[in-house]
Amino acid sequence: MAANAALESPVMVIGQEFVTQHPVDLEMMNDCKVTDEDGNLIFQVKSKIATVRDIRYLQDAYGNIFVSLKHKLMTAHGRWEVFRGESIEQKDLLFSVKQSSVFQLVSSKLHVFLPSNTTEKRS
Q1: Which of 108, 113, 118, 64 shows the shortest CA–CA distance to 86?
Q2: pLDDT of 19 higher than 50
Q3: What's the whole-number mean pLDDT along residues 32-49?
Q4: Interacting residues of 109 by C-beta distance below 8 A, sequence separation 6+
Q5: How many whole angstroms separate alpha carbon 104 and alpha carbon 39?
Q6: Of the spans 45-49, 74-78, 87-91, 94-98, which averages the highest pLDDT?
Q7: Which comes out higher in pLDDT, residue 96 or 107?
Q8: Are 57 and 45 in contact (CB under 8 A)?
Q9: What SUPFAM superfamilies does its record include (predicted)?
Q10: 27 to each of 32, 74, 85, 110, how far by Cα in Å?
Q11: Hey, which residues does 77 pair with through a beta bridge?
Q12: Taking the CB of residue 3, how many other CB atoms lie within 10 A of it?
């Protein structure tokens, strides 16, 4: 019941083009490409070669960058910050992601926090 309610009133963080009315199974391949169950490219992760910072870019199937992923160094939980477009400015922060546990061997359980949740309180 709760899952259906979530689909009826989605929280749109990035853009309307990424909202679906039904669950979508995605698979991330070793080459950082995300495909749907039919093998169609949906997203891909790219990085700029000559950079000191660990910043990656999530692109749609057409190569358009829609978010920047910045790895926070010196954190215990593998934290990333996600920004709108190619920006890495705090004013463009969409959300941050961190591993739920410092030690995760196989699967990844992640916590996602919107910028307004500065205390990272989970509901």
Answers
A1: 64
A2: yes
A3: 88
A4: 99, 100, 101
A5: 28
A6: 87-91
A7: 96
A8: yes
A9: Tubby C-terminal domain-like
A10: 10, 29, 23, 16
A11: none
A12: 8
Q: Can you tell me whether residue 60 is helix, strand or coil? A: strand
CA distance 39 to 61: 12
Structural domains in the chain plus CATH codes: 2-113 (2.40.160.200)
Cβ burial 11-22 (10 Å sphere, 16+ → b, else e) = eeeeeeeeeeee
Confidence of residue 103 (pLDDT cuts 50, 70, 90): low
**Tell me, what's the pLDDT at 11?**
67
Tokens of 43: 């997203």
Closest CA to 98 of 90, 89, 83, 108: 108
Q: DSSP class of residue 61? A: T
